[in-house]
């Protein structure tokens, strides 16, 4: 990607109204664009990051047997009346009433569509278990959107729903998701902890949240040295862990939530199966969701310095930020890196070196390569990692070995 031909327009100053680090840096770096309160668009750089995270999620969920679907955001209100949530949920649930004959809900979650969909497939125990997953838009009317991408009105989620004949099947899938989610957070560069939590409006029990500890978080969690953690909504009496040690309060961003719905929606929608003895029983369900926008916000909140973002390599919009201050070798280096399959943002603008260095730091791309008159006199270039202070000189031809995937495999 050439900077001069890209849709990048960085800002020096923090945008008006940005109260969080993630919003300030993402808007300044041309990753997101604010459409309205709690409503953001991803610009090209931001969308690259979003798509990389989606791919990581798909890879890990594919390993545990998830099958992907795509469900509508516009739901007939009747489905939400059957579940009871049409009246149970307050103003957060957006309703569209065009006439008495046409009443709809904008989906904030998908149990009301996923359950009838599963019903069309399930007859006997032999049809179970299975898990359906989707990555889609959700709409929730937040009275006070805040925290940049942390609490939105229009947001993106991975949400999966599993269907089972037995508690043992449900337990296994639940554990599979715990393992998959841990791998996902590790791959995107987040140190997430699992927290005991309440299920809230979704219902069910055996509820777990995945949190990342950061001062930017709006959730309060209690953490023990033994590794256990609790949302304050379900904290043990006296703030003492089950191991007997005192709990320490921290702030966290909720990245994901998993819980066992069991038969809450099955009973409402008549989702049943016939067991081995011919007995009709309700299908047991589980629900598993990751907030993708929150994930990006959490990455920025926990990976930045005073100059900009420090993107983990797996999700960065490019691997190399290339700056040519001399003019004779930049095109060649750019071309060769591209031929190797290395994602490069080539800053080919006619601006000062200071502006280029500043943008390189703000955008947070993991490696910066600088070609200058001084370095080229020694047939060298300057290589610097974004998360390190010191740059190092390297022979121009040697740089291609650094990014040769064949030579750098574990």
Outline of the structure:
The chain folds into two domains: 15-305, Bira Bifunctional Protein, Domain 2 (BirA Bifunctional Protein, domain 2, 2-Layer Sandwich), CATH 3.30.930; 318-402, Rossmann fold (3-Layer(aba) Sandwich), CATH 3.40.50. It has twelve helices and 23 strands. It has helices at residues 21-28, 44-63, 77-83, 85-88, 111-119, 167-187, 264-269, 292-302, 330-339, 353-363, 373-376, 399-402, and strands spanning 32-36, 39-42, 67-68, 74-76, 95-99, 102-106, 130-139, 154-164, 192-196, 205-213, 219-223, 229-231, 248-262, 272-274, 280-282, 284-291, 304-305, 308-309, 320-324, 344-347, 367-371, 380-385, 392-395.
* Helix-strand makeup class: alpha+beta
| Helical residues, percent | 25-40%
Count structural domains: 2
The pLDDT mean sits at: 95
Description:
The chain has 2 domains: 15-305, BirA Bifunctional Protein, domain 2 (2-Layer Sandwich), CATH 3.30.930.10; 318-402, Rossmann fold, CATH 3.40.50. Helix content is 28%, strand content 30%. The protein has helices at 21-28, 44-63, 77-83, 85-88, 111-119, 167-187, 264-269, 292-302, 330-339, 353-363, 373-376, 399-402, and strands at 32-36, 39-42, 67-68, 74-76, 95-99, 102-106, 130-139, 154-164, 192-196, 205-213, 219-223, 229-231, 248-262, 272-274, 280-282, 284-291, 304-305, 308-309, 320-324, 344-347, 367-371, 380-385, 392-395. The strands form 6 sheets. Strands 3, 7, 8, 9, 10, 11, 12, 13 and 16 form a 9-stranded mixed beta sheet that branches. Helix 9 links the parallel strand 19 and strand 20. Helix 1 (21-28) packs across helix 8 and helix 2 (44-63) runs antiparallel to helix 6 (167-187). The longest helix is centred in the middle third of the chain and has 21 residues, at 167-187. The protein is elongated. The relative contact order is 0.13. The model has no long low-confidence stretch (mean pLDDT 95).
């Amino acid at each position: 990607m050439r900077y001069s031909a890209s849709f990048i327009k960085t800002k020096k100053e923090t945008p008006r109204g940005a109260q969080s680090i993630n919003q300030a840096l993402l808007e300044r770096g041309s990753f997101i664009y604010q459409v309205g309160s709690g409503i953001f668009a991803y610009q090209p750089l931001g969308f690259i990051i979003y798509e990389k995270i989606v791919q990581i999620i798909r890879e890990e969920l594919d390993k545990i047997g998830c099958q992907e679907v795509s469900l509508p955001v516009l739901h007939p209100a009747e489905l939400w009346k059957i579940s009871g949530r049409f009246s149970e949920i307050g103003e957060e649930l957006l309703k569209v009433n065009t006439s008495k004959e046409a009443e709809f809900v904008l989906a904030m979650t998908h149990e009301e569509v996923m359950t009838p969909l599963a019903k069309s497939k399930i007859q006997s125990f032999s049809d179970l278990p299975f898990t359906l997953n989707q990555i889609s838009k959700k709409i929730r009317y937040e009275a006070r959107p805040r925290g940049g991408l942390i609490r939105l009105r229009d947001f993106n989620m991975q949400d999966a729903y599993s269907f089972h004949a037995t508690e043992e099947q449900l337990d296994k899938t639940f554990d599979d998701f715990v393992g998959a989610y841990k791998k996902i957070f590790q791959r995107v560069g987040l140190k997430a902890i699992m927290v005991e939590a309440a299920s809230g409006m979704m219902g069910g029990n055996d509820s777990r949240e995945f949190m990342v500890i950061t001062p930017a978080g709006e959730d309060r969690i209690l953490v023990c040295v033994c590794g256990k953690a609790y949302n304050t909504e379900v904290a043990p009496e006296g703030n003492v862990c089950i191991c007997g040690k005192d709990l320490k309060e921290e702030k966290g961003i909720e990245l994901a939530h998993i819980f066992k719905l069991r038969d809450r929606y099955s009973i409402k929608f008549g989702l049943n199966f016939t067991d081995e003895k011919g007995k009709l029983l309700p299908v047991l369900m589980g629900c598993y969701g990751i907030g993708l926008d929150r994930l990006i916000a959490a990455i920025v909140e926990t990976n930045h310095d005073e100059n900009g973002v420090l993107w983990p390599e797996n999700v960065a919009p490019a691997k190399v930020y290339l700056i040519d201050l001399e003019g004779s070798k930049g095109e060649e280096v750019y071309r060769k890196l591209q031929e190797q399959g290395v994602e490069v943002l080539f800053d080919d603008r006619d601006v000062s070196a200071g502006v280029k260095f500043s943008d390189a730091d703000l955008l947070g791309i993991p490696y910066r390569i600088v070609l200058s008159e001084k370095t080229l006199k020694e047939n060298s270039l300057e290589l610097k990692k974004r998360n390190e202070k010191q740059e190092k000189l390297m022979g121009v031809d040697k740089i291609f070995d650094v990014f040769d995937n064949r030579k750098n495999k574990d």
